[in-house]
Design a protein that fits this description.
Length: 248
């Protein structure tokens, strides 16, 4: 035996070893180049394909309601927190603290009152009156010793509702004095506890010594619609005042 050869393997690649070399087998097909001697022009710059872009113009949607700040003020235990809670469309923010024996003789909520807490900072609620108007209600603490906060709470307010208990008229004097001095339009809402007033409205107006231009209404702090009507009176007063000032 001269040699051992596998029968499948060819003895040599067709075309010889050069035809089976790596450059021959894997190189890209040869394309003819530019004629020798001519400069090669640079490739054209890349341009992204044009895509039609749809532009969206301003859409005329519904306008957001105008925000208006209104204060709910008045003496201690007259129904300010109740007023805000009755009408607010959100769960009202309250800052109630338990009344303690330290307040006996200082904070008098009235003989028949079952009040056990008091507002120590403010009440907050809001109500949308219509598509163009949204009221933000800020209830003040009632006691005159919290008067230092009223300036801050009153900043930016359009008007105020001074809530009055007809049994304890003197409790609302500090609030009325404050708004008269601040020049903020206000209306007086007499909260008819259990649907009755201790005095009629003309007598209350006389006792509070408020001018004819200050609206005086009876309302029920627990009734949503009644509170709404009282707030509309405040808005009316504020609008009236603004119109007058513009005309002057
Ligand atoms: N019967 C009756 N009770 C009321 C009325 N408004 C408020 N109250 C009660 O009077 C107390 C004092 O009310 P509140 O809103 O806390 O007074 P505020 O100190 O002015 O905030 C609470 O116990 C209320 O439930 C009302 O119109 N009728
Ligand atoms: Mg309160």
């Amino acid at each position: 035996m001269d040699s051992v050869r596998s029968p499948e393997w060819p003895a040599a690649a067709a075309g010889g070893p050069a035809a089976n070399s790596a450059p021959t087998r894997y190189a890209a097909p040869v394309t003819p180049g530019p004629p020798a001697g001519r400069p090669v022009p640079p490739p054209p710059p890349y341009r992204p394909p044009r895509v039609a872009v749809r532009t969206v113009g301003p859409v005329a949607g519904p306008r957001a309601p105008v925000p208006v700040k209104i204060l709910i003020a008045g003496g201690f235990g007259v129904g300010k927190t109740t007023t805000v809670g009755a009408i607010s469309e959100i769960a009202p923010l309250t800052t109630e603290a338990e009344m303690t024996s330290a307040g006996i003789g200082v904070d008098d909520p009235g003989a028949d009152s079952d009040k056990t807490t008091t507002t120590v900072a403010m009440d907050f609620g809001c109500v949308t009156i219509d598509r163009s108007l949204k009221l933000y209600l800020f209830g003040t603490p009632g006691q005159a010793r919290f008067g230092f906060m009223w300036d801050d709470l009153a900043r930016g307010a359009l008007g105020a509702l001074v809530v009055v208990d007809s049994d304890r008229l003197d409790d609302c004097y500090p609030a009325i004095d404050f708004f008269e001095r601040a020049g903020l339009p206000f209306a007086v809402g007499v909260n008819a506890f259990d649907g009755r007033l201790a005095l009629d409205l003309p007598s209350i107006r006389w006792a509070l010594a408020i001018g004819e231009h200050v609206p005086l209404v009876q309302f029920d702090a627990r009734d949503r619609l009644s509170v709404r009507d009282a707030l509309l009176v405040v808005l009316d007063r504020a609008l009236d005042r603004a119109t007058r000032e513009k005309g002057a």
